[in-house]
Amino acid sequence: MAGEPQDDCLFCKIVGGQIPATIVRETETTVAFRDINPQAPTHVLVIPKAHYANAADLAVEEPGTAADILREARAVADDDHLESYRIVFNTGAGAGQTVFHAHAHVLGGRGMQWPPG
Ligand code: 5GP
Ligand code: ZN
């Protein structure tokens, strides 16, 4: 069934507590934890507890949870006192996605360039 935990998914294991993470926020539908390889002073991943391969699939299947991800991204930024921050949804291997469980990167605490690399 759509959204069910996947045995081979790293982020499902973080949601299930089988793999530890530095969790900074949790709601009924989402978990936010610090990225293991931070690219900025604040680098937090906000993920749905349900498994979907990417953010767009999540939005189609559970639009309310997709909105929760954005609300939690702002809460992460507020918690870290960020005036400016970037929310990134890498989608597809060619765009840098390496974990195929939807996640928002929340990045901040340093200057940002545009366009991204
Ligand atoms: P993607 O490349 O799919 O957009 O983002 C996946 C992110 O997950 C990467 O930034 C990577 O550093 C992070 N990551 C990979 N494995 C782990 C882990 O075991 N724990 C945590 N906290 N982050 C991880
Ligand atoms: Zn998963």
| CATH architecture call | 2-Layer Sandwich
CATH class: Alpha Beta
Ends apart, CA distance between termini: 36 Å
Major pleated sheet: 5 strands, antiparallel
Overall pLDDT, averaged?
97
Q: Which term fits the overall shape?
A: globular
Using the coordinates shown, work out and report the CATH topology. Answer: HIT family, subunit A
Mind explaining what this structure looks like?
The protein has helices at 10-16, 55-61, 63-79, and strands at residues 23-26, 30-34, 42-48, 86-88, 104-108. It is α+β, with helices and mostly antiparallel strands. The mean pLDDT is 97. The chain has a five-stranded antiparallel sheet, with helices on one face. A hairpin with a 3-residue loop joins strand 1 and strand 2 (30-34). Helix 2 crosses helix 3 (63-79). Residues 10, 19, 21, 33-37, 45, 90, 96-99 line the site of guanosine-5'-monophosphate.
